[in-house]
Design goal:
single chain, about 425 residues, alpha/beta, eight-stranded parallel sheet, five-stranded antiparallel sheet, globular
Length: about 425
């Protein structure tokens, strides 16, 4: 294990990428700071003449990261069949991709646990064809980041299960990828809670420590300040609207402004990918979550507040432990292209209702108190992702919990046990 500060680790990665031409996989538990590290790495690579493009596997995570989806960058959208290359290579989109790739030495892909193996194989083939190079990834250096213990890609029941994990694919197995595991969790400080989260993500619920944690969370009574995590969008939206409607007073609706360069953006996609809501219904007294990081450090993405005043173009909210309300004006989320140029934006009051949240949309958030409704949890890592959002286990309640909700992939466990990884502790 190496003890490094963030700057030193980025220097190490730059050396691996620029001098040794190695592709990299950054992994580690939730809350170790992978996404922040990627942003800084990209900036440092650009400074030294190794231009990097920042991508992620979902629209939501690409907005959070400040990049584009890897599917959009590659021009393949939702395609996953390798035979698509025969058609794609004769399109103007392929010609445009070749021009894009000529401008970048490094491709960064975040949240790779949600990238299917067959899509990854297609991406590798497209890179080789577009770059005219049969080396892995067409000779490009790729920096992967993610945690395979977290939410997996969608693979339907009638599809081949081998398509689920990219580390089982031929391009991954045939490439030299150096793996670094970040082990210093910043979100939580209690070592026992961190250890329990590690056991739960691996599917272990039999240890005395984990049993005690689960029993404590099952017995804890929810409070008015808790945000309830749901597994599905439908139950979350219904719950939030019900809580808002129950409040006294006038309902005020804020409609987001969504715009962009013609032919370069899809309005429905922008609305779907942005954490903010297109139609935001609020009343005075509503509990909300602020959904961006304040440059003045007054709050972070995930800070809870109570609405104290609703104006035409802004709202006032009172954050816990602060004496005076603060004004929140409309915030602009920018959709960037591959060259960091804005092609579209969504402008909206930067809050969402704090009563309910899907586990998926909690990505990137740190919350003080939560309730997890386990009733409809259905896939690998979902419970672990939800539990890892809260700072302190004493402020978490589990309802509708049973052991079957702790779902872990045996294939992922084997990968982490058999893969050589260098552990990095970042101060």
């Amino acid at each position: 294990m190496k003890h490094l500060n963030s700057k030193s680790f980025i220097e190490l990665l730059k050396n691996e990428i620029i001098k040794k031409k190695h592709s990299i996989f950054l992994t580690g538990s939730a809350g170790v700071g992978k996404t922040t590290l990627l942003r800084n790495l990209k900036d440092e690579l650009n400074k030294v003449g190794a231009p990097a493009v920042l991508t992620s596997t979902t629209g939501l995570s690409s907005f959070h990261l400040g990049g584009v989806t890897i599917h959009k960058f590659m021009g393949i959208n939702i395609q996953k069949n390798t035979s698509y290359l025969n058609y794609f290579s004769h399109t103007f989109q392929f010609t445009a991709l070749k021009k894009r790739l000529a401008k970048f030495d490094v491709i960064i892909i975040d949240e790779i646990s949600m990238l299917r193996a067959d899509q990854f194989t297609l991406i590798d083939l497209v890179l080789k064809k577009a770059c005219g190079n049969n080396k892995p990834f067409g000779g490009k250096i790729v920096v992967f980041s993610g945690d395979f213990y977290q939410i997996p890609p969608v693979v339907l029941e009638n599809e081949i299960k081998k398509n689920q994990w990219i580390f089982t694919s031929e391009p991954w197995l045939n490439s030299k990828i150096n793996v670094y595991k970040l082990i210093h969790v910043h979100r939580q400080s209690n070592a026992d809670f961190i250890n329990c989260l590690d056991e739960i993500k691996e599917g272990h619920v039999e240890s005395k420590q984990v049993k005690n944690l689960i029993e404590m969370c099952k017995k804890r009574k929810p409070t008015e300040n808790d945000t309830i995590f749901f597994a599905t969008n439908e139950e979350c939206d219904t719950f939030n609207q019900k809580k808002i409607n129950q409040l006294p007073g006038k309902l005020t609706t804020y409609i987001a402004t969504v715009a962009g360069k013609r032919k370069q953006y899809n309005k429905d996609a922008i609305i779907r990918e942005c954490i903010a809501k297109e139609k935001l219904d609020l009343k005075v007294g509503a509990k909300v979550i602020i959904v961006y990081n304040d440059p003045k450090n007054r709050f972070v993405n995930g800070t809870k507040a109570i609405v104290t005043k609703l104006n035409e173009h802004n709202i006032e909210v009172l954050i816990d432990n602060q004496a005076k309300p603060i004004v929140l004006k409309r915030h602009t989320w920018k959709k960037l292209n591959y060259y960091n140029k804005t092609i579209a934006y969504m402008k909206q009051i930067p809050v969402i209702p704090a009563y309910g949240l899907t586990i998926h949309k909690s990505q990137g958030m740190t919350l003080d108190s939560i309730v997890i409704d386990c009733k409809n949890i259905f896939t690998y890592g979902q419970l672990y992702v939800g539990m890892s959002r809260v700072r302190d286990a004493k402020n978490m309640t589990l309802i509708h919990f049973d052991k079957s909700k702790v779902i872990t992939s045996k294939t992922v466990k084997k990968y982490y046990k058999t893969t050589k990884m260098e552990e990095i502790y970042i101060d």
